[in-house]
Amino acid sequence: MPVDVPEGEALKKWTLRTRFDSAREAAAHKAASDGNDYLAGRIKEFQFRDIRPKAASEIDSLTEASKLLGHTEEEITRQVYRRVGEKVKPTR
Question: How confident is the model at residue 4 (pLDDT cuts 50, 70, 90)?
Fold first, then answer.
């Protein structure tokens, strides 16, 4: 169940944790109810710390990804956070 934060108050660590856990559980439940147990299992394995690498990998521009994560060196973003594989054409 989501935790309400009064308007104008700082978002505390436990509130963010609770909201993340609730959203992850709801997504896993939805996947399972749609008959996709594999996806439900993968969603349950997703951790809060996976968000930064995911965000860095979704942006095509290394410069923009580095800015988003607040890095002054793009190399840090590339080596530590980017998880982008080689783009290939389909065989068919």
Answer: low
Q: What is the mean pLDDT of residues 16-38?
A: 95
Looking at the fold, whether 77 and 55 belong to one and the same domain comes out as: yes
Who's near 3: CB < 8 A, 6+ residues apart?
Answer: 14, 15, 18, 19
Distance CA 50, CA 52 (A): 6
Global pTM?
Answer: 0.61
Per DSSP, 81 falls in state I
Distance of CA 21 to the CA centre of its chain: 12
Whether residue 7 lies inside any domain: the answer is no
With residues binned 3-state (H G I as helix, E B as strand, rest as coil), the percentages for the chain, rounded to 5, are 60, 0, 40
**Total number of domains constituting the chain:** 2
